Amino acid sequence: MKISQLLPSITLFAILVSCQAQEQNSSTVIAFGSCSHQDNDDQMWSEITAEKPDLMIMAGDNIYGDTQDMSEMKEKYEKQKSRPGYQKLMKNTKIIGIWDDHDYGVNDGGKYYAKKDSSKNLMLDFLDVPQNDPVRDRRGAYSSYVLNDNDKSIKVILLDTRYFRDTLQRDEERRYLVNEDGDILGEEQWHWLESELSTSDANVNIIVSSIQVIAADHPYEKWANFPKSHNKLLYLIGQTSPSNTLIISGDRHIAELSSMEIDGLNYPLYDLTASGLTHTWRKSGEEENQYRIGDLIIAKNYGLITIDWSNEEILLEVKGTDRQELLSHSITLN
Prior knowledge:
This protein is 19% helix and 27% strand. The protein is of the alpha/beta class. Strand 8, helix 6 (227-240) and strand 9 form a beta-alpha-beta unit. The longest helix is centred in the last third of the chain and has 14 residues, at 227-240.
């Protein structure tokens, strides 16, 4: 299976997947992961490459920049990109992605980070986004891609949860206070997202959010810290009701699968979190999540989405070191 990218003409970009003349592929494989520290030699690029994914999605914290110094940020990106394992993945798989907080430039940061435009350009350079790509000219780093496999298509929507996000306040009892009136995406991105969802004719739609959307019980960063934005996102997904929509997320240094029913969808909405390409929690523990399916995974991990077109099934997986299966859940294509 080959992957090529067309030059963009508007805000939608196409990754065309063409099969060899005699080949008839019945599955599309998408890998994703987050939280990869550039100074950690124990990376997971070899495991991901061995999965032979058609696409790799970097879901945030792709480096740990945490700096106002853009020369330092650039050096960290260069170190990550020069790793032999990552270079091999690049040669075999198309890579797209979005930032979270540490590669944005400040831990748990939002719209007031002064270097966000310079940082954005470095991230796009790291991901080899063309200079004529419209994302280069807009405020924020959000974008969308379409992956075509014969007569089937997958839309990947990369949300920017940093550039426009309002501030969170800390509390002694819970890490963050709920920001009742705050926003995550900003007006421009909300309009764009509504258009992306309402006009999508893809067979499968994957929304990439660096922070968790469904899990709401933990005290850390999550969409539920901004209830207006959280409710708006769920309402928008239900109202537009694009086919076979699911969410992938990172940030947490754990992995888990969450699911909930929302008005307007005739199928459950899933949020598969895979976080910890180089590091995870230092010790085992428990964390409440009323929406969790299966176990909380505390181990280095990456996520896999395998769309089996012939059997009309999507397999959601989390794998660890040496491709060990840590979580597996099948859902039926609608």
